[in-house]
């Protein structure tokens, strides 16, 4: 049994996860060493050493969640505990939160900072996947099956928005929407939901326009101005995006060489977090950017494939939700760096510096690896119907019987 379980893991996603993390560690060192000395008077390897610890903790957590059966997360008591902790964490930010870059999003725990909104993204994935999996029999019953879980999604997005952290709130909302679209609802139910959202948007839009200053801080408005005219506002709002353009343009195809970036010498703010891809483009050129994009694309597409092939609705939505989280966050970060969308302050998955981000992504990848293992085990070792007069079908495999999780 143990050998069958080991053979059932999808080692390709594990390998890509590790390669991206190691590549990110190298680039965190390269992009942060000047900033560590000039801005904080730290040793040049300060952020590298912290990120190395983050990755070690993250890999241990990844192994645990890759082994622990994902079906246990469907338990009602676990869901109540998880959602309660998520909401409590967001309330704690409002009371004792630490402000960085105009957002009160962190809680200081000793020498470390924790960003609860990062964990909320994963909580939303697990909660919505479990609730909609349990509602499959009446998934198209709008009042009973469709709408109630959306209250939780909108509530946590609102709490993240008032930190204010518009980028994370928007990502969380999009992740929730992706799970809803893949929950098994009919086109009619989804159309009703979209129509309801449009109506609410039309009703609230005049109020938002009148209270524009309340909904968008000076930092938010500055990012929009910088997005529209980065070089015209180079000395102020457009500084980050303009220097990002310069980094990407100067890198060309081959790049300037590892460690040879000019923009990280104090010109580009946050070179090791939000704008690490600009440094990758400057130092390693198209090849470095291509490596990151291919790795992220593989994890997203592989997660979607696992979700589509999974026979368990809960596992399917978990896999698609995790893939959506990686894909959406990557797009928003890369869109901000390249000027496709306004800058949001969102990090690049697996590559950027950040303890909370690496920890959440490691948990997510562990869950995805476990879902893939269950799927592969069923495909390879599921018992076949022995009646030759009936079509062959997969029945409940021994692995699920052994753990016997409540559906």
UniProtKB/TrEMBL annotation:
Enzyme class, spelled out: transferase
Residue spans crossing the bilayer: 12-33, 53-71, 78-99, 119-134, 146-162, 168-186, 193-212, 275-301, 313-332, 352-374
GO molecular function terms noted in the UniProt entry: lipid-linked peptidoglycan transporter activity; peptidoglycan glycosyltransferase activity
Subcellular localization(s) per the UniProt record: Membrane
E.C. number(s) listed in UniProt: 2.4.99.28
Substrates-to-products reaction catalysed: [GlcNAc-(1->4)-Mur2Ac(oyl-L-Ala-gamma-D-Glu-L-Lys-D-Ala-D-Ala)](n)-di-trans,octa-cis-undecaprenyl diphosphate + beta-D-GlcNAc-(1->4)-Mur2Ac(oyl-L-Ala-gamma-D-Glu-L-Lys-D-Ala-D-Ala)-di-trans,octa-cis-undecaprenyl diphosphate = [GlcNAc-(1->4)-Mur2Ac(oyl-L-Ala-gamma-D-Glu-L-Lys-D-Ala-D-Ala)](n+1)-di-trans,octa-cis-undecaprenyl diphosphate + di-trans,octa-cis-undecaprenyl diphosphate + H(+)
Entry's Gene Ontology cellular component terms: cell division site; plasma membrane
Domain of life: Bacteria
Keywords: Cell shape, Glycosyltransferase, Membrane, Peptidoglycan synthesis, Transferase, Transmembrane, Transmembrane helix
Major location category of this protein: membrane
Region forming the signal peptide: none
Membrane topology: Multi-pass membrane protein
GO BP term (any one): cell division
InterPro entries (alphabetical): Cell_cycle_FtsW-rel_CS, FtsW/RodA
Known function: Peptidoglycan polymerase that is essential for cell division.
Family: Belongs to the SEDS family. FtsW subfamily.
Protein name listed in UniProt: Probable peptidoglycan glycosyltransferase FtsW
């Amino acid at each position: 049994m143990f050998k069958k379980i080991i053979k059932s893991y999808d080692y390709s996603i594990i390998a890509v996860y590790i390669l991206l993390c190691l590549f990110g560690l190298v680039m965190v060192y390269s992009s942060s060493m000047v900033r560590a000395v000039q801005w904080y008077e730290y040793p040049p390897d300060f952020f590298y050493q912290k990120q190395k610890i983050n990755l070690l903790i993250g890999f241990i957590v990844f192994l645990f969640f890759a082994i622990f059966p994902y079906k246990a997360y469907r338990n009602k008591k676990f869901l109540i505990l998880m959602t309660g902790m998520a909401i409590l964490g967001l309330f704690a930010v409002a009371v004792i939160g630490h402000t960085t870059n105009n957002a009160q999003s962190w809680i200081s725990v000793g020498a470390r900072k924790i960003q609860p909104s990062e964990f909320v993204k994963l909580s939303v994935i697990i909660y919505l996947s479990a609730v909609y999996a349990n509602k499959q029999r009446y998934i198209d019953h709008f009042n009973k099956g469709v709408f109630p879980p959306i209250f939780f999604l909108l509530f946590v997005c609102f709490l993240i928005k008032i930190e204010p952290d518009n980028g994370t709130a928007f990502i969380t909302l999009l992740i929730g929407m992706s799970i809803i679209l893949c929950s098994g609802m009919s086109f009619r139910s989804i159309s009703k939901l979209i129509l309801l959202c449009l109506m609410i948007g039309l009703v609230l839009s005049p109020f938002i326009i009148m209270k524009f200053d309340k909904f968008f801080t000076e930092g938010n408005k500055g990012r929009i101005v910088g997005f529209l005219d980065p070089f015209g506002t180079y000395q102020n709002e457009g500084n980050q995006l303009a220097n990002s353009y310069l980094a990407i343009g100067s890198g060309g195809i081959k790049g300037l060489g590892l460690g040879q970036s000019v923009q990280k010498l104090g010109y580009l703010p946050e070179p090791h977090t939000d704008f690490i891809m600009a440094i990758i483009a400057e130092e390693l050129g198209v090849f470095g950017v291509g490596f990151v994009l291919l790795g992220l694309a593989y994890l997203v597409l592989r997660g979607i494939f696992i979700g589509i092939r999974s026979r368990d609705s809960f596992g399917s939505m978990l896999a698609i939700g995790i893939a959506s989280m990686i894909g959406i966050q990557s797009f928003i970060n890369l869109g901000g760096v390249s000027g496709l969308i306004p800058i949001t302050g969102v990090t690049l998955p697996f590559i950027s510096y950040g303890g909370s981000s690496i920890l959440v992504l490691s948990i997510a990848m562990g869950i995805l690896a476990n879902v893939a293992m269950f799927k592969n085990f069923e495909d390879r070792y599921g018992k076949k119907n022995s009646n030759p007069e009936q079509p062959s079908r997969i029945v409940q495999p021994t692995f699920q019987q052994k753990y016997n999780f409540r559906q």
